[in-house]
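Person: I keep going back and forth on a fold encoding question. Show me how you would write down a chain together with its backbone fold. Please set it down just below, with no commentary around it:
Helper:
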Amino acid sequence: MKKKCHPSYQEVLFIDTATGYKFVCGSTLQPKEREVFEGKEYPAYKLSISSKSHPFFTGNQQFVDAEGRVDKFKNRYSNKKLEAQKAAEKEKVKEEEVKAEKKAKKLPSSVKTVAKAEEASEEAAPKKKSAAKKS
């Protein structure tokens, strides 16, 4: 084997940031951080996921997301879902207004005046009753 052509092989301490699990394994990684493990100092390399936190090995279907990517995704699309619901509600209100206008246009003018007169009498009737109750 040629000298200085291959990286040096050494024991490295791997740290699972999701669970805090630590293990030592031989590697050619050259991390700058160092940490003491079981009374000996090792170069330390931090992992985002290992066999102790991966759902395949743990049997859990819950994914531990240290960086918050899942939360960002859920927030982004929950906001869009709410906006779509609000837009659908606005469309329903507009459709109802259009239907009411169409009904008003279809009624003959004599029916419209009768309906207005009935509404006016209904509004006046409760005022007279409330005035009678007060005295």
Observations:
- The first strand starts at residue 10 and ends at 16.
- Residues 96 and 102 are 10 Å apart (CA to CA).
